[in-house]
Amino acid sequence: MTTDTASLRNSWAAADPRVPDALRDAEITQLRLIYDSSNYVFLADLDHPELGPGLGVYKPERGEQPLHDFPYGTLYEREVAAYEASRLLGWDMVPPTVERDGEHGVGSIQLFIEHDPAEHYFALRERDDFDEQLVRLAAFDLIANNADRKGGHILRADDDRLWGIDNGLCFNSVEKLRTVIWDYSGTTLPEPWLDDIRRFRAAVSGADEESA
């Protein structure tokens, strides 16, 4: 079965602090295959005793296609790591994403973000009011060494917040940056963002902020 996600609605809010735990604990009542993906990806219908029905995107390890430059079976872990990195930076640009078991085994499950597929990066960059968020996404891709930032991997939610999805090809030990967000090359990052990056580097390296 395949599914068109354009008209789907999700009652779970990304800002709700209960969502990460709910993604882990909710019953998966149905899986629907999402087409046009290089790996097996499923839209998961969820049911949680507190949050009620919701939607997630389930990417099982078993459905990953082997790649020559990324260790097999690690893409779902990189999806989770991208979410945690975004949180650690304080930027929260990746939808809540956790590891859990499902019908097809262990994998990642990410909160489904309602969006219009026609509003991809190449449409959003025409609007000046998205410049700041797009610059921050570009900076995040650089930090995460994202090797696969396509135009359709940036979603606009109903509140005009932008989200970066499909982050499975991040954190390679070799420089792999490949992103469509080149329009902002040369942009100077605000000092508060640089403080966030320094804090992030210190946290992941175990160093003091002053020495990072």
Helical content band = 25-40%
Distance between the termini: 49 Å
| Tally of DSSP helical segments | 5
Whole-number radius of gyration? 17 Å
- In N-to-C order, the SSE pattern is EHEEEHEEHHEEH
Major beta-sheet overview: 6 strands, mixed
Secondary-structure content class: alpha+beta
Average of the residue pLDDT scores: 94
Give start-end ranges of low-pLDDT stretches.
none
Strand order of the largest sheet: 1-2-3-4-6-5
- Count of DSSP E strands? 8
Shape category: globular
Q: How much of the residues is beta strand, in percent?
A: 15-25%
What does this protein structure show overall?
With 212 residues, the protein is an alpha+beta fold. The protein contains 5 helices and 8 strands; from the N terminus they run E-H-E-E-E-H-E-E-H-H-E-E-H. Strands 1-2-3-4-6-5 form a 6-stranded mixed beta sheet, sandwiched between helices. Helix 1 (19-25) links the parallel strand 1 (2-3) and strand 2. The chain is globular. The termini are far apart. The model has no long low-confidence stretch (mean pLDDT 94).
Q: What is the strand and helix layout of this fold?
A:
Blueprint lengths: L1 E2 L15 H7 L1 E8 L7 E7 L3 E9 L14 H15 L7 E6 L2 E7 L9 H4 L6 H14 L9 E3 L5 E3 L26 H15 L7
Parallel strand pairs: 1-2
Antiparallel strand pairs: 2-3, 3-4, 4-6, 5-6, 7-8
